[in-house]
Fold each of these.
Amino acid sequence: MNINFTLIAQAIAFAVLIWFTVKFVWPPLLKAIETRQKDIADGLAAAQEGRSALEVAAKKSEAALNEAKQKASEIIGQAEKRATQIIEEAKSNAKVEGDRIIAGAKAEIDQEVNRAKEGLRAQVSSLAVAGAEKILRKEIDAKAHSDMLSKLAAEL
Amino acid sequence: MTTEHAQQAEHALTPSNYIAHHLSFNTKSIGEGGFWTLHVDTLAMSVILGLVVMGLVWWVARGATAGVPTKRQAFVELVFGFVDDQVKNIFHGDRHSFIAPTALTVFLWVFAMNAMDFLPVDIFAKFMHSLGFDTWRAVPTSDINTTFALALAIWFLMIFFSIKAKGLGGWIHELFCSPFGSKIWVWPANFLFNMIEYVSKPLSHSLRLFGNMYAGEVIFLLLGLWAATGLTGTVAAAILGAGWSIFHILIVALQAFIFMMLTVVYLAMAHESH
């Protein structure tokens, strides 16, 4: 247990070891560990970023889906409206056409009736003349009474 | 259990002879007087261990990759992280430039030197004897010179950092004005307190480690003595020796850890002003 020069020699050895560690051992280990820590932190951050990006994308796709659904229902609504409109139009067209056809038929019927009336009138006057002739053959002259008869026919 | 035949030829193997022989240093005189002596065994063991341990760590550190580490690198990083965490909790400054590497050096070196206590005392002595070394102490930390050298080096660093952090004036001011205040009539008390602190720090720092390792060695020697007394003694000493060795694993690691922690605490305290 005697103190001697060994102490100084040991202190020098200690100093050299410390210098060696400070200079050559600690820095590369520290660098390796810190680089790895940074890599891991970066990786975690990237994963987090990816997760949030995924979330955003999911939200976006949901929004797009909703929009599409809304548009589709809008289109369907419009189509339904248009269909009823077309039906209404067709109905009114048909009505107008029917009315027109009915009016035409009525006019034709009137015309036919008039024509028949004309024909009948002419026939009635000639019948009346023929009847009167037969009745009056002996008494009257056809020529003398033809004016009166045609007046009569016109009155009919 | 016999060790030195040459010794036996001269002296009868008495317990005191046995222990005294095991506790003798391999000395080499380099000048006049008792101070100019070198403990060859202590120096050789500590320098070899320092080179081996720090060399291994350096070898791993040189090839250290930031990617997936090898098991070797992972182990070194484990030690690195352990030391770094301890330092981080105590010292709040730029620890990477000096204090943390110093702590790593202290921890690994002291641990390796302490671990020499696991070498079986007699077999190792016999081995060294066969190499021509009559006496050889295997555990450098059971030499007061080693522990005191480390503690004194830390002590000087402590004063150096103290002056560096506070300036020479600040340091002297602190010597006289803390812990009791700056009134002139408490200056002597302050100074006395600080002196006691400055003396006790390296003493407790070095003697704690020395005492533990020295005591551990002596107990192994006592068990060796017991083992020489016959069959009963051999069996008892073997069982107790195994137990003591296992317990010593704890002591070796714990003392290295305590020595490192005190180193860090002292150096960190030097950076703080009161």
Amino acid sequence: MTCVGIESTAHTFGIGIVKYPPFQILCDVRRVYRPVSGGIHPSEAAKHHMEKAVDALREAASRVDFRKIDIVAFARGPGLGPCLRVGAALARMLSLKLEKPLVGVNHAASHINIARVLTKAINPVILYVSGGNTQVLHVSGDKYVILGETEDIAVGNLIDVFARKAGLGFPGGPRVMELASKSNRLVKLPYSIKGMNVSFSGMLTMLERLIGRESVEDLCFSLQETAFSMLIEVSERAMAMLGVNEFIIAGGVGANMRLRQMAGEMCRERNAVFKDYPPEYYADNGVMIAWEGVVQYLLGERLSIEDSIVKPRWRITDVKPPPARLYEN
Amino acid sequence: MLNPLPQGCTRIRNLYQGAEAIVDLCEWMGTRVVVKTRIRKGYRVRELDDSIRKSRTLREASLLNSAKKAGVETPFIYHVNPVEGWIIMSYVEGESLRRLQYSSIFPNLINRLGIIVGRLHSAGIVHGDLTPANVILSDDRLILIDFGLGEYSNEVEKKAEDIYTLISSLAPLSNYDTLVKLFLEGYRSSTGESAIKIEERVKEISKRGRYVEKELRR
């Protein structure tokens, strides 16, 4: 079967097409919104997506014959309402036009399942890190279980807000990573772990105060070392608690090389395996939505046009994960 | 993988190996002791790793001591080296409550544990990993061990989490309801008024449903 997936939860408008079985990526079109100043402005991002939608669709159609599409999937949430509605509208249109079933998928689950299909991880602890989310998860039977999460802001938000205040622009991740590599001087920042939860708001406040007093390279280095150590530590705790020896990272912050390097080191020290995959699939994309569309379709999910309202606050705990056998062999 | 031990210690056997620390039973100055060593983490830069292991080692030692002052029995600390990240403490001989959960005295022990946890919380100390595996019955005394995740806190949420952790570890037992009742009776008797708020929060936490069964932990 062939599934087209539409991503439009935040800054990226993406159209991806996958075929299964076996898993194969047929096309991956992305249009990324870059704010002129400040962070993501929801209605501006939505406008960007509307403007780019047709162009992106044309590009996808030039690569894949849309008459071969069997399923139309879209990211139904969580995300920014105005942005979600653009993707939803396009998906409804495609579903009606192609006369193919519509499937609304969860963005977080999509990140996790693209990671799993690319790595063949059977029973991993998952660190899901992006601009809006920071969670440590595990698939237990037919549920996603959140073992730990941020008690305030997401790690991607910490990076983006710091970067913006330090004049590094949006998104902050790539610039912070680049500047961090030029320093090895640690400025002491709050290291806040509570059980398997983390907290970043104290660190952000401290960083904001230090802008101008410490070099921006040192601050980037210290932010990365401190925040990522916290994330890897809670992930390791989850692995120890469950006796799990596979680890994957999902979500945009996973594109950071230093975070993945630390993940590899942690796993090596405990004889576990960090399963990595190409960095471009850590970022938001349509391919992961298409794959989650296949997964949910196989689980029997169908969405009627009338019920296809977006869900900006959709928690992953309300979503069914695929059975592990989908990722075996 | 064997970790280096403090000078003068001879390892008898490993007791526990967690994500953060290794606990060994050792011979030291002619007595049996427990050595808890916080492991170096290669993924953290050295400076950060040193400072984390140091502050946590000191905090744990301090909590063990403060608990004692609040009338809660804990192992005695013989020696601490925050730089190396180890604590040498007395070895508590006995059975963990986890091993006693099917015995006829278990309900009474749970009631006594309630009193002890109440004392701990009244002194502003939260254990952080309150499972029957961390309570040892030694010569009819109940001794609380492993304050590795503990902290000084008077937050209702933290205290409720302690209780929730314990209660959920009792869930598989057939006399669960009685045990919870006995535990809370004990807890109330040593905390008084403040127990009400904390118990309400425990109910709230159990409805959130994002906690996994914590008995998986050990």
Amino acid sequence: MYTFSSKLKTFSFVLMLIGALGIGYGFLSAPKTIQDVETILAAESHGHEGAHNAHAVEKHDAKAKAEHEEHLTHVLHQLENKPWAALYVACIFFMLISLGALAFYAIQQVAQAGWSPVLFRVMQGVTSYLLPGSIIFFVILLLSGMHFNHLFVWMKEGVTEVGNPNYDHLIAGKSGYLNFPFWIVRAGLFLLVWNLYRYYSRKNCLAQDESTDNSFYKKNFKLSAAFLVFFIVSESIMSWDWIMSVDPHWFSTLFGWYVFASFFVSGITTISMVTLYLKSNGYLENVNSSHIHDLSKFMFGISVFWTYLWFSQFMLIWYSNIPEEVTYFKTRIEQFNLPFFGAVVMNFIFPFLVLINTDFKRITWIIVMAGIVILFGHYVDFFNMIMPATVGNQWFIGIPEISSILFFFGLFIFTVFNALTKAPLTPKRNPFIEESKHFHY
Amino acid sequence: MSNKVIHAIYNDDDVLMDAVKQTKKAHYHIEEVFTPFPVHGLDKAMGIPPTRLAICAFIYGCIGLTVATTMMNYIMIEDWPQDIGGKPSFAYYQNMPAFVPVMFEMTVFFAAHLMVITFYLRSRLWPFKQAENPDVRTTDDHFLMEVAVSNNEDELVKFFEKTGAVEVKVVDKH
């Protein structure tokens, strides 16, 4: 049995506390009026050319003034969105890590994999964050629907109403699918089914330990197969609903796969890092270097898979050059140049070069280093998906963003390691447990 | 000088694996093992050093990438600049995304083909080559271990009969 060390527990509470304070600061310091925005912009342009601002004020022309005010209102909305978007990105990222681990776990069950049963409890530990993660996430979705924030422009009032100044023809055409009631019902359903699978699969896995036959194992097999079918459909829809719809005019047909690859590799990396942590503390005596090697191979392989999808999505849209599609990448290359290309370096080039070597896939510090870079890289990837449409050129990785990461990271550590203490770390009566213990690559 | 070897024949890969481990433990010199299909972990049990083919593959891939880059740069940028999707094409890096599929394919092409050729050369396989396996049954359902004899013929025969071999014979190798 694993015992949650008090040091780690304190660490997770400290993270949550600092995170919560920072998130609060982010909300309190967000500008409330366009006057605030004007001071912020003036401070920013101080020392620069300051062209836009000074120019508009000098003219004293009525039209320019109206334009200037419109610009300020726009920036105000972006800055009001900023703490929300920071919270949203970190929240969805950590929730999807546990979902990715859950998908990986379900695949192991369905494939009847012989190598992985010694890691099942670790995987279940990582997926235990799904419940708190999805509750917080659902609350944020509800708050968005109640207009506490403006992350989703298609929720704005009058968007679908002909004659309204907010009317948007394209969104109106999609409103049969993209409307708040249907959207929130879908979200609730997906989160509920994923959590139900996680709950029953864990329950069966524990019951199998005390059982006299393999009936619970077989039950888990069927349950996992059904879950995977549901998952791959719901995952696509969730990526359109929760991520792609912040840019409601834009669409990409492989977006679901792209998001999946991103959180799948993050989930596997997290499993690998939790395994290494437990191993370094003297637990998981049955996990040998071959298990670690296999996890690293998955980290390497799915990183390459992510790159394949990232590039496929980018190249087709970039060279087909259709204005309403290519604007998505224009914004990212012009305003998000560093995070956009930085994500490729962190998610592809670095893990590719470091993990390509067979021997390196077994060395703890190299895996941990590659894992940290991969996890940061995929956070930046989600950042790139959400921020351009919600915050625009006002983006910055500052106190609200870092605090949100810290808060959810603390909560993640607390939930995961707390769940690990609840059951023995080796499943006793899994039919493949002997094969798994002797797994040798 | 007579060059005698023992041929121990097995009909199961698990028995063979155990026999190989016992032989290594008894410090007899295994010259070669012939199997009808790749036996997982046999190379490690025989104590053969790990293959360096992966290093070759990496080098070949780098060559392929270089060839593709040079080729595309000459064709699409220097010799006859092409407008792809209205994107700038004055320098290689500006139009690089369009060339990534070619760069990728050439990397894979070079790595795969040169690796196969290297593998054949290293395994001494070429067209019209006579098969080296001493017993035709090793292409069907039997496994053969060849062990060098150095004035311990009887001892070896007894040893291999105990390891579960279905047949043990002493052969003069020319």
